[in-house]
Specification:
- This protein is of the alpha+beta class and 298 residues long.
- Among the domains are: 79-122, no CATH class; 159-294.
- 62% of the residues lie in helices and 13% in strands.
- It has ten helices and six strands, in the order βββαββααβααααααα.
- The protein has helices spanning 45-53, 82-101, 111-114, 125-132, 135-180, 182-203, 209-223, 226-244, 250-271, 274-294, and strands at residues 7-15, 18-27, 32-37, 60-69, 79-80, 121-122.
- The strands form two sheets. Strands 1-2-4-3 form a four-stranded mixed sheet. Strands 5-6 form a two-stranded antiparallel sheet.
- The longest helix has 46 residues, at 135-180.
- The protein is elongated.
């Protein structure tokens, strides 16, 4: 069963007197891109979290945030990160000076804008000591949220599978209609071609019949759309197979949509028959709709 690259989950808890609040969300992406906003003083925790996440997802832009809050004990209160604060204020001072040098006026900085920056507020040494060596326990506490995140991607994937399956069914229906039009198209093309040949022979009495036959053969070959219809049938079968497999097939499906698009473009270009052109345009619309959905498949 396919999975979506869109997912969300959040959770809260308390570990050794320190409350935590975590959130994870993901959107579609070409590869797996994990961004973590977590305290950097928990030993090797980010590395462990990234490794854990790779067991739940193979593609997508994933953002994880983890916030810790100390207990009410005075020894657990958050304190200013003096080094980080000094570096940030120094950078702000240099930015303001540069702006003044070129005549720009910047809005005054506010403490509320600076406090959320990384390293400005940190947990006290007591709170850090409680968790700095308990990354494994914290990761275990986060696993229910990670499973809920994976479940949300699976649920979204199930919905995508239903939509794509219906679009493939509609695509097959239009293909079947196109095949029924082939005899009518052939008859109309033959009539038009014969009319044009008669005009040529009346206008030019010295035409070489063999050369005319060669040109007619080329026209027939170039206007034949049987191969395009057969390949589109094969592409539909391949797409159905891919969405049933329990592996990440998003890249394969995306490539297959390029082939859908190429064949439908060729079909429209070679149709030369209004009813068939209309069906070809319908196939192109469905291809674009499927591709839009498949871009979110893992």
């Amino acid at each position: 069963m396919i999975c979506s690259m869109t997912g969300f989950a959040s959770d809260t808890g308390c570990l050794n007197g320190v409350s935590w609040r975590a959130e994870i969300r993901s959107v579609n992406g070409r590869g797996l891109d994990i961004k973590c906003r977590i305290p950097d003083w928990i030993e090797r925790f980010e590395e462990s979290l990234r490794t854990e996440l790779q067991t739940y997802a193979t593609r997508g832009h994933i953002s994880v945030s983890l916030k810790l809050e100390a207990s009410d004990s005075p020894s657990d209160q958050a304190v200013l990160g003096e080094e980080s604060l000094a570096a940030i204020l120094g950078a702000l001072e240099r930015i303001e000076q540069k702006a003044m040098d070129i005549g720009l006026s910047l809005a005054p900085s506010r403490a509320a804008d600076i406090l959320p920056l990384r390293g400005v507020l940190v947990s006290s040494e007591v709170g850090q000591q409680r968790l700095s060596e308990q990354g494994a326990d914290l990761l275990e506490a986060l696993r229910p949220m990670l499973r809920a995140f994976a479940a949300s991607r699976a649920a979204e994937g199930a919905a995508l599978k239903t939509i794509i399956s219906q679009q493939l069914a509609d695509f097959e229906r239009l293909l079947a209609q196109a095949k029924t039009l082939l005899p009518q198209r052939e008859a109309a093309a033959s009539k038009s071609l014969q009319k044009n040949i008669d005009k040529i022979f009346r206008a030019e009495n010295e035409m070489d019949p063999q050369r005319v036959a060669q040109e007619l053969a080329l026209i027939v070959i170039k206007s034949d759309i049987t191969e395009e219809l057969d390949r589109l049938d094969a592409h539909v079968a391949s797409a159905r197979k891919l969405i049933e497999q329990k592996v990440a097939n998003g890249r394969k499906l995306d490539f297959l949509m390029q082939e859908f698009n190429r064949e439908t473009n060729t079909l429209c270009a070679k149709a030369n028959y209004k009813e068939l052109t209309d069906l070809g345009l319908g196939l192109k619309v469905l291809t674009d709709q499927m591709r839009e959905q498949i871009q979110n498949v893992e």
